[in-house]
């Protein structure tokens, strides 16, 4: 820079002073100790400024849209392109506009032009949120029923509830770049706002591109969150042995008979008991445990997993190319666990 | 003492690419000076390459920010909130092309030392091991030796050696 023509000198001087004021950090202050060519007032000044900055606390987060380099229309266009979807500008804009934002803008206009209602063409995204949420909910359930046809309806609902929590949807929304585009009164956007905006974006996609594209969007972004998760852990069965008895009875098979298969290290802290459950002399589940009671309960859970076809070695869910070729039956519904329990209760009452 | 470089494991955002691939770079800002020499390469890039770049990457928003007499810088912002500044004074156009492409392809992970080049959340697919893992319960009621249960190899190494020796002896005779 020094070799550059004299035209630049003024800028350099300005730059130097600016740099000096910007670099308010303790390291700068201590680095110049002992250099007497510096003005002696500089150190106390910088120290003072530094301490004031520390006392002030962290700078509150600014919305990205308040920056100089921000073009909302370009961002909206890129948002759709990035996700590989074709949105209409007006629908996408509507999906990001929350009611709170519209109300805030309207009150601003009313304050500036007293009595005049103003011409606001903002539409809020409530209908898109509700249509998006219905679509997400229906598709998740249909997709899960297709892959786990023997898994009880209660379990399907538990996995569905896990996937549609505000926390998870907000996490997805954050990672596909929804956060900066939200037009809402609250800042920084809460989990609820993020989650609702995601639902509205799905609704907008269904509006612009049809149900099928929107469902594939849900498959690619929401259902992929099941990777590496065990669906059996999302739904806990209170009395596994009781449920197993009911189910076997309904299927007209012999009742469960727990048998001790192996044991080792009794009366030690490393004891292990392996219990197997037989029905009609056929092994339907087995599990290890520290005590025979624990092992029996775990074996019942294992037998249920096998009955529901949700064991650990099950086929992975279909995503990507496989997911595109799915033919999902929307009207099917899985058997309800409630039915088995009721059956037992009815029998007990009659006897 | 300078802070240690954080370490961690490789990770992808939202299982990217399992369903569909989403480019993680969401916007790039090119800051440059309109007259200073060290922004020459950046200006050439803007004049000759920028439109092609935006055409082939519609998902990345490009901003141009001229600033008087300051170093040219490429600022890339990623979907996970990570932001990277790359100062490119006196860089020729070709190098700027490569750096912009590099920033576009990154996934925006905080710079860290990778402890391993592979990672799994589920290291075991068979669950917790116990002394009877994969042991068939029918072994409890089998009497040995049993022709259906092959306890060891049909022919031991000793047997095989003896057989070979026998064959050699016969050949010699």
From TrEMBL, chain A:
SUPFAM superfamilies: dsRNA-binding domain-like (SSF54768), RNase III domain-like (SSF69065)
Residue ranges of domain RNase III in the record: 76-210
Main location (coarse class): mitochondrion
InterPro entries for the chain: Ribosomal_mL44_DSRM_metazoa (IPR044444), RM44_endonuclase (IPR055189), RNase_III_dom (IPR000999), RNase_III_sf (IPR036389)
Gene Ontology molecular functions: double-stranded RNA binding; ribonuclease III activity
Domain of life: Eukaryota
Localisation: Mitochondrion
Biological process terms in GO annotation: mitochondrial translational elongation; RNA processing
PROSITE patterns listed in its UniProt record: RNASE_3_2 (PS50142)
Keywords attached to this entry: Mitochondrion, Ribonucleoprotein, Ribosomal protein, RNA-binding, Transit peptide
Family that this chain belongs to: Belongs to the ribonuclease III family. Mitochondrion-specific ribosomal protein mL44 subfamily.
PANTHER family attached to this UniProt entry: LARGE RIBOSOMAL SUBUNIT PROTEIN ML44, RIBONUCLEASE III
Descriptive protein name: Large ribosomal subunit protein mL44
UniProt organism field: Lingula anatina
TrEMBL record, chain B:
Family: Belongs to the mitochondrion-specific ribosomal protein mL43 family.
Protein name: Large ribosomal subunit protein mL43
PANTHER family for this protein: 39S RIBOSOMAL PROTEIN L43, LARGE RIBOSOMAL SUBUNIT PROTEIN ML43
Ribosomal protein/NADH dehydrogenase domain sequence ranges: 34-107
Keyword annotations: Mitochondrion, Ribonucleoprotein, Ribosomal protein
Keyword Ribonucleoprotein: yes
Annotated GO biological process: mitochondrial translation
Annotated organism of origin: Lingula anatina
Record SMART domains: L51_S25_CI-B8
Keyword Ribosomal protein in record: yes
MF term (GO), any: structural constituent of ribosome
Major place of residence: mitochondrion
Entry's Gene Ontology cellular component terms: mitochondrial large ribosomal subunit
């Amino acid at each position: 820079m020094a070799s550059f023509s004299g035209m630049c000198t003024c800028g350099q001087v300005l730059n130097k002073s600016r740099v000096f004021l910007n670099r308010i950090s303790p390291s700068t202050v201590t680095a110049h100790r002992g250099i007497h060519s510096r003005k002696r007032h500089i150190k106390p000044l910088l120290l003072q400024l530094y301490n004031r900055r520390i006392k002030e606390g962290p700078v509150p987060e600014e919305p990205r849209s308040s920056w100089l380099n921000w073009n909302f229309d370009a961002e909206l266009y890129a948002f759709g392109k990035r996700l590989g979807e074709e949105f209409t500008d007006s629908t996408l804009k509507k999906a990001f506009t929350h009611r709170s934002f519209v109300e805030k803008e309207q009150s601003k206009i009313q304050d500036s032009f007293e009595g005049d209602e103003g011409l606001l063409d903002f539409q809020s995204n409530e209908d898109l949120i509700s249509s998006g949420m219905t679509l997400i909910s229906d598709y998740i359930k249909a997709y899960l029923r297709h892959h786990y046809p023997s898994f009880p309806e209660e379990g399907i609902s538990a996995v569905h509830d896990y996937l549609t929590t505000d926390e998870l949807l907000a996490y997805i929304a954050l990672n596909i770049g929804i956060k900066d585009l939200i037009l809402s009164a609250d800042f920084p956007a809460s989990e609820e706002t993020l989650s609702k905006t995601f639902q509205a974006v799905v609704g907008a996609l269904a509006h612009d591109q049809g149900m099928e594209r929107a469902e594939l969007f849900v498959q690619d972004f929401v259902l992929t969150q099941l990777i590496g998760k065990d669906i059996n852990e999302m739904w806990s069965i209170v009395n596994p042995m009781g449920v197993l008895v009911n189910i076997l009875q309904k299927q007209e098979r012999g009742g469960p008979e727990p048998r001790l298969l192996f044991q080792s290290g009794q009366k030690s802290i490393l004891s292990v008991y392996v219990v197997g459950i037989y029905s009609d002399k056929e092994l339907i589940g087995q599990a290890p445990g520290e005590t025979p009671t624990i092992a029996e309960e775990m074996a019942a859970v294992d037998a249920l997993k096998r009955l529901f076809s949700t064991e650990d070695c099950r086929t992975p869910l279909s995503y990507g190319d496989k997911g595109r070729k799915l033919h999902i039956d929307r009207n099917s519904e899985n058997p309800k666990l409630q039915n088995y329990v009721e059956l037992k209760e009815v029998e007990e009452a009659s006897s | 003492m300078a802070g240690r470089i954080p370490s961690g494991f490789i990770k992808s955002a939202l299982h990217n690419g399992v369903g569909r691939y989403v480019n993680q770079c969401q916007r790039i800002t090119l800051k440059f000076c309109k007259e200073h020499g060290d922004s020459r390469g950046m200006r050439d890039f803007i004049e000759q390459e920028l439109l092609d770049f935006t055409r082939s990457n519609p998902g990345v928003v490009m901003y141009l920010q001229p600033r008087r007499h300051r170093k040219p810088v490429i600022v890339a912002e990623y979907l996970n909130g990570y932001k990277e500044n790359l100062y490119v004074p006196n860089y020729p156009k070709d190098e700027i092309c490569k750096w912009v492409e590099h920033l576009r392809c990154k996934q925006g992970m905080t710079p860290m030392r990778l402890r391993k080049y592979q990672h799994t959340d589920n290291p075991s697919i068979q669950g917790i091991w116990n002394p009877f893992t994969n042991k068939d319960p029918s072994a409890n009621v089998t009497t040995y030796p049993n022709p259906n249960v092959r306890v060891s190899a049909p022919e031991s190494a000793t047997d095989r050696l003896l057989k070979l020796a026998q064959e050699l002896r016969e050949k010699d005779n």
